[in-house]
Amino acid sequence: MDEDSTCADGEAGEIALVTRVPAGYGKVAALDALRLRLGVPGERIVYVGDGSSDIHVMLHVN
Fold this sequence. Notes:
The chain is an alpha+beta fold. It is built from two helices and two strands, in the order E-E-H-H.
């Protein structure tokens, strides 16, 4: 996965990572890859979307 990342202070409860992935990679696949790479349990994931293409990922996360 080739991505651009931005980090902030995760200890303070702020966004710790924003990642952009190439078109066609698949949002669920990108989310799962990041979760596994970072060792974050599924119950700690929050996904925010702005369109109907995000519904599938929201259902996967929740």
